[in-house]
């Protein structure tokens, strides 16, 4: 089975769909978001992803008045959540910029009003964050949009994934193996789960959403058959914010996309043959012919 997002087909032997997650690494700055979109486009990814929350719904009651030191001064956690959210006009601006650079763009909505907000922007797909796998009300709202859905599976049991897919269906879902540790250490990556998910949900494309340092684990995921790869991106891992440390800088993103395409070429078609490049060595080295 394949899933189509925008003009891209995911699965079925197609090249991996690479998603650069900007998330909240724009720090509420439209110009920074545009710079990150440019970084993603220049690297050759297919999509950029954001996060969308309604702060009054998504901020826990006990956290709302907690002071937080930010680049804009000390403010309550609720004020900070508002400060880093884009409004409709800002999303139109960044969405138009992504489209001009030839990228799909969408977001992870964290609540039902955010689904409605993104639908008004006509996003091509929706992403379910790992933290939302058990939010049945949100999943039902996403199902009812009729859009393709990318479902991350971090911090989730197989039974919770089963339940989410019962709500969403499987005909337009891409599953993403993930471990929700920031940054993730190699011993928690558990990449063999990619094949477990593929076997458990036949026909559902399975990708990988990574939060590790470096590139090796994401590249190994592609070698194991991941049909999509998602990584956070930043201009500088030392920037202020919670996700920058587990993000790729521009050079790292360039190398990731380059190496994914090399691996895809190297995997070949599985048909054993003698390649043209082997003919001269064979004539020189093989003493007994068949």
From TrEMBL:
Tell me, what is an example of a GO biological process annotation in this record?
Answer: carbohydrate biosynthetic process
Q: Which domain of life is it from?
A: Bacteria
- Select a single GO molecular function from the record's annotations and give it: N-acylneuraminate-9-phosphate synthase activity
Print the keywords alphabetically: Transferase
Answer whether the UniProt record assigns the keyword S-adenosyl-L-methionine to this protein.
Answer: no
A Pfam short name: NeuB
Protein name according to UniProt: N-acetylneuraminate synthase
**Organism from which the protein derives:** Microbacterium thalassium
Q: What is the lineage of its organism?
A: Bacteria, Bacillati, Actinomycetota, Actinomycetes, Micrococcales
